[in-house]
Write a sequence for this structure.
């Protein structure tokens, strides 16, 4: 079967991109990364793509007069590379309704909290300030509202007494790298479809509970 042609949008270090590239390096993985597109020239993610011999493009938002022409350029570049499905991986620009709707149910994101809690750019800081005992990460289809949309996969980790933002972020990131390829695989295999704006999973689910503190 033909592999799903995926474009990944990045802005920074690209560790989630790396997890997707590594998964897709296996010919049996049902998706291939055909384009890595950055809005930040020189982003380390671009080097990761080059290393994996994946095509790259830079579309610097600063070179455009407003969001619409910037997003039109993104859209056209994705189409030019035959991209069928888009993954946001640390892409730090908000996308307008126009772009999000053009890629409806063909656009997913990873966020470092258990959505719908702790949306926004400072999830770990907000988690620590709230004093919650568990955090985690979420892969979700993208809707126009920020960090909103049908949830595909989540992983939970404990928040530990000595955590600061970077320790918590590292623990969550490890799980991000597990669930992003997992979510993309399920989608590419047609096992995570949106029905009534929720994801219907055709996959085994994890059982048991993660409890913090230990009983
Ligand atoms: C990750 O924490 C991701 O959840 C968030 O931005 C960060 C990107 O990290 N959306 P990386 O560029 O994938 O290393």
């Amino acid at each position: 079967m033909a592999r799903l042609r995926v474009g990944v949008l990045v802005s920074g270090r690209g560790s989630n991109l790396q997890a997707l590239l590594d998964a897709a390096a296996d010919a049996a993985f049902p998706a291939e990364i055909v384009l890595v597109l950055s809005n930040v020239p020189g982003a380390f993610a671009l080097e990761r793509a080059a290393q994996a011999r994946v095509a790259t493009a830079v579309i610097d938002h600063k070179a455009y007069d407003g969001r619409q022409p910037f997003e039109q350029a993104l859209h056209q570049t994705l189409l030019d590379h035959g991209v069928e499905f888009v993954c946001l991986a640390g892409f730090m620009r908000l996308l307008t309704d126009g772009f999000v709707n053009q890629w409806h149910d063909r656009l997913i994101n990873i966020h470092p909290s258990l959505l719908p809690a702790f949306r926004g750019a400072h999830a770990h800081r907000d988690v620590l300030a709230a004093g919650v005992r568990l955090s985690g990460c979420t892969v979700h289809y993208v809707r126009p509202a920020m960090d909103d949309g049908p949830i595909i996969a989540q992983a939970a980790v404990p928040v530990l007494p000595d955590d600061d933002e970077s320790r918590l972020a590292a623990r969550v990131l490890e799980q991000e790298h597990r669930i992003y390829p997992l979510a993309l695989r399920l989608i590419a295999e047609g096992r995570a479809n949106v029905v009534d704006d929720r994801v219907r999973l055709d996959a085994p689910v994890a059982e048991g509970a993660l409890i913090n503190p230990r009983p």
